[in-house]
Amino acid sequence: MTKTFLKRDYTGIQLIFLVLLRVSIGWHMLYEGAVKIINPDWSSFGYLMDSKGIFAGLFKSMAAHQGVLQAVDYLNMYGLFLIGLGLIAGLFTRLSVICGIVLLSFYFLSHPPLAGIQYIIPQEGSYLLVNKTLIEVLALCVLLVFPTGQSAGLDRFFQKKDK
What we know:
Elements: H1 12-38, H2 45-49, H3 56-64, H4 66-89, H5 93-110, H6 132-145
Helix pairs in contact: 1-4, 1-6, 4-5, 5-6
């Protein structure tokens, strides 16, 4: 049997906790996407305009152009939903994890948890550099290097068989 990056032997408890991590993050993203999809008044406008940090100009320019804002809203709503669905089902897991890392990184860069920055949108707690968004990005990075979709997910039906 050949060893590949995607072929891993996990202990039962390792697999259980990695899959629970994947499904939990998936549920969080799926739910956040669904809430945005069903709310006809939801828009990322306020969040983008409240952006601080070195990329604030980029995020505010996204909000300033109606067409770009609509695209950002669409990608945000359906991106969250589809990433969450992929993580829960273990389908296109690697793509879902990478897209989740990118999306959450944009959130982190838009609202960096730095000392002295005040946001209009309420924040949970007081953070310095590390917040729940960064922790979720790092957890997705763990899932990127410990792929579970082939072991416990629909990806296993699409993996190549070793000869």
